[in-house]
Write a structure and sequence with these properties.
The protein is α/β, with parallel strands linked by helices. It has a single domain (3-153), classed as Response regulator (Rossmann fold), CATH 3.40.50. Helices cover 54% and strands 16% of the residues. Strands 2-1-3-4-5 form a 5-stranded parallel β-sheet, sandwiched between helices. Helix 3 (64-70) links the parallel strand 3 (52-56) and strand 4.
Length: 154
């Protein structure tokens, strides 16, 4: 899948941060949507399969960690990176335990952010490839078993 097809959802209630991230990521060839609260992000995830979401830890309507588990799961699994201005070990541990794939502290440096996004998308592609290989292998095995059992009946 080419990078231009990768969709990223940015969830942050700070419009300046939304715009900055959107422009940075759009320049890198990603398709970017933004949401300023958890409810909108959940709604958007219902209708659009995102490859990756950048989630602010503190949103007006819910904690970013709550949003982690409420976003619609996609295949291949959407990667989720928490972004917070309130860094603490507890927050980081809670985020990872609730399914975050990465954790960044504001202000985020663009090179660090892009590196983490590229790394997560590469892992996603690896997961997708492994899943496809497992399915192919399963189908081939089933066909051999079915052919074998048909041969026994003749």
């Amino acid at each position: 899948m080419s990078q231009s097809k990768k969709r990223i959802l940015v969830v942050d209630d700070d419009e300046d941060i939304q715009e900055t991230l959107k422009s940075l990521l759009t320049k890198k060839g990603y398709l970017v949507d933004t949401a300023n609260n958890g409810a909108i992000a959940i709604q958007m995830s219902e209708s659009t399969p995102y490859n990756l979401a950048l989630l602010d830890m503190v949103l007006p309507d819910m904690e970013g960690t709550q949003l982690l588990v409420k976003l619609k799961p996609t295949t291949p699994r959407m990667r989720k990176i928490m972004v917070t201005g309130h860094a603490s070990l507890d927050n980081a541990i809670r985020a990872v335990n609730m399914g975050a794939d990465g954790y960044l502290i504001k202000p985020v440096s663009p090179p660090e952010l892009l590196r983490m996004i590229e790394d997560q998308l590469k892992r996603q592609e690896d997961d997708e490839r492994l899943t496809q290989e497992k399915i192919t292998s399963y189908i081939e095995t089933r066909i051999k078993m079915l052919e074998g059992s048909k041969g026994n009946r003749e």
